[in-house]
Structures are given as C-alpha cells and as structure tokens.
Amino acid sequence: MAIDRLRGPASIPALLFAVLLWLASALPSAAITLLRDAGIENALTRISAPLLRAAGLNPRRVRVLLVDDNSLNAFVLDNSAIYIHSGLILKVKTVAELQAVIAHEAAHIANGHIGRRMENLRNAQGLAGLGMALAVIAAAAGAGDAAGGIAIGTQSSALRGFLVHTRAEEAAADRSAMAYMRKARVDPRGMVGLHEIFRGQELLNIARQDPYMRSHPLTADRIRAAKAFVAAYKDRAAPDPQADYLFARMRGKLSAFERSTKWTMRRLGDEKFRDVKLMREAVALHRQRNLSGALAAIDGALALKPGDPYYLDLKGQILMENRKWDAALAAWRAARAQAPNDPLILAGLGRALLAAGHPGAAIAEMEKARSRDGRNPRLLRDMANAYARTGQPGMAAAVTAERYAVMGRLDDAGLHARRAVAMLPAGSPAWQRAQDVLIAAERFEKENGKGRRRR
Question: pLDDT-derived band of residue 12, with 50, 70 and 90 as boundaries?
Fold first, then answer.
C-alpha cells in the first residue's frame, strides 16, 4: 500500500468552496491524499461494477479510489472517478452499505449533478459577493468551519439558496441509488444501514460533524425514504458471497495498515476467511519488523490462494521494504504474470527492477503502467529516477514535470518542464507532454502574478 498526495478537495464542502475559489482566483484546491493499493482497488472495481452498469456508466471509465481520511465521506469531482474516504470504508459493516455509497455517488455522475452544481456555485458567488469570496479563501486555507461562518454571517441567503439545490440533488441521488441497487440485485437495506451510521450527526456542533452532513438532507428523512423503498422491494437480493469476501479482504488489509498492530492481532480470531486472516497477520507482523513471521503468514495465504496476484503484490512490498531486492522482484514478476494489465502491479515490478539494478527493464514496465494510470506520483518519481540512471536527463526532467503537475505544484512543474523542453527533440511525444505542462504552469503563473515576480 502506498500513499500519494494529489491536488483536490477532501470533502464535498471543500469541493464547493474550492470551485468558488477557482472562479475567484484560479488557485488550485487543497491537497487530498490517496491510498493506492492494487488489491483494494481491484476489490472496489469489482464491487462497484454492477452498480455502475445499472447507472448506465462504463465500469472501465469510472474508477473508485480511496482517500486517506478518517472522516465519513465520499465525493465526485468529475465523471471519471468516485472517491471514498478510508474512514467510511472502515465504518460500514456490510458490503451492501459500501455499495450504497458507490451507488449514491454514481447517481451524481449519471444525473449530471456535477455540471449543474458548478452553475449553482457561479450563481451563489454572484449573490454572495465579498462575503463568499472571504469564505472560500478561508476554506482554501484549511479553516472550513470559519469559512462557513463567514459565508453565513455575510450572505446567508446566497448560501442557503445554494444548499437548497445541493440537498435536492442529494435526495435525488438517494432515489436513483436505490433504483440502481435493485437493478444490480444489491440488498437495498444497505442504504438504510448507511444512513443509520450518520444518525445524530445533525445534533453535533459543526466542528464535530462529518463533512458529509453539511450539504445533505436530514438523516431521519433519508432513513424514512430508504425504509419505504425496502418495504416496497419484495424480492430481496440474494446473498453475494463473492462480494462479501472482497469486502472482508479490502477492509482487512486497510485496517491492518491503518490501525495499530495490537488492534489487528487481537481481532484475527474474528476473521471468517482463513486467507484474509493470514494476510492481516502478515501486514501486522511486517509493521512489527518481523520479516520471517510476515513471510510465513503471506505464504500461508498464498497456499490457500495459489498465484493470487494481490497477495504476491503484498509479498513483494514486504520484501522490498526489507531490502530483499531479488526476492521482491521474483514476487512481482509472479504477480505480473497473473495480472499483466494492473498498473499498480506493473509499477511495483518496475520499482523492484530499479532497486535490483535493471533501470532499462524498469522503464519498460513503468511506461506500461503509466499508459494505464498516468496520475500516480510514486510511479512518476520512480520513472524519473530510472531515466536519470540510464543517462536520459531530458526524459527524467519531463517525467518529473508531470509528477509535480499531478501533485498540483505547478511552480516546480514549470521549472522541470522548461528543462525538458530545452533537452528533448522538438516535436517528440515527450517534448509535447513537457510543453503541455509548461503551458499550464505559465498560465498559472500569469493568473497568480508569480510570473511577474520571477522576472
């Protein structure tokens, strides 16, 4: 499991304020932190696929990604991805509750809420004037609650008008989500269970509420609507053992990395899937620096699931982080043989090849990974290192520029893009990518006055 920091809002309210900020000053939004893990993303993809199809969306084009945040939240930024906070995945009790989250966010995409919400934001900005401008600046600085207070104190009617639109969309998304769940044969009681998690949040001080509550209808209303749908849904969905297994495996790995090792070890006996229990034990022992124990546990999981690419990926990570380069390389090669198109496994193999002293071969695997997932900063950092080691400074600079652009650090991206453009053959694909980054960086500098200060 790897942590990558990308630029983007960390919650629905942050999204609202961030878009207003963009309208006002063209500044990028606050950073979010993604947890990238091949096994977890595979589970999320498989769990979400029937719901996305029910919503009329292509599961190959809409990704479900994990945000490293303990709050209970999920959001969409565009039509290409659904973001779910790790805290929400650890809080829900059943796979149907998680699928209810995914269905709700898929409804925002399918119903066209993203475009309409931006238009409502523009209208709200025009009504709110200086008060809302101050609010979004405060939000961008990380003072979300203060921003809400400023907005309410200066132009509360504009904010209320915007939230009316937002809450109407949220209620509509709930209705669509329950229809998707029925069509996908997912138990709609998951929606009731999801809303029960948020029961009582309305009574909390805003500083203690989860961000999800601030722009959604009252929980009691949502529970009533969900229960009414369940009552009308006579042919309840049949159990889905495969989805239950994927859910247990995903939550097991996430909790083993995110929670204390003592917490994990105390609860191993509660795990009903033997291979998942061994995987969780392997992570806990790895974090306790017990290499032999961790390898014994993950090998036990592999004995139960021979050739499982995601257990092999975890084994590669354990070996790599213990500086066992050749053994890690063998594990990732075996994982790639089973999942040749998984970009995170390809990135892991490239990293292992680089560590084992094969930078040329590493570049070949990393380029395959980038063609499938070009927004992975860790992969781009490894690629830059590999290109530098093979005597290709222009390519190293171009890839570094892309990495900083993905991270939202446009000043640094522009610096490396200029370097790349000067060294690469004009018109080559890499030169063109560097030129694109440079244009974006120069536009950012111009809009924010940084170009004048630099000159």
Answer: very low
Distance, in Å, from the CA atom of 19 to the CA atom of 9, rounded to the nearest integer, reads 9
- In degrees, rounded to 5, the angle at the alpha carbon of residue 238 between the alpha carbons of residues 237 and 241 is 125
Q: Would you give the end-to-end CA distance of the chain in angstroms?
A: 42
3 state DSSP class of 80? coil
Q: Which two tokens stand for residue 146?
A: 């203060």
Q: Rounded distance, CA 59 to CA 37, Å?
A: 18
Q: Is 200 left (phi over 0), alpha (psi -120 to 50) or beta?
A: left
DSSP calls for 239-306: P-HHHHHHHHHHHHHHHHHHS-HHHHHHTGGG--SHHHHHHHHHHHHHHTT-HHHHHHHHHHHHHHST
List the beta bridge partners of residue 84. 66, 74
Question: Which single residue is written with the structure tokens 């109407």?
Answer: 168
Neighbours of 7 (CB within 10 A): 16
List the chain domain ranges.
2-232, 392-455
pLDDT tens-digit readout, 79-118: 888 999 999 999 999 999 999 999 999 999 998 867 555 5
Average pLDDT over residues 68-84: 87
Would you call 45 exposed, middle or buried from its count of C-beta atoms within 10 A (0-12, 13-18, 19+)?
middle
The single residue listed with the structure tokens 């200060």 is 453
For 40-62, what is each residue's pLDDT tens digit? 999 999 999 999 999 999 999 99
Whole-angstrom CA distances from 427 to 8, 255, 398, 402 are: 31, 47, 13, 17
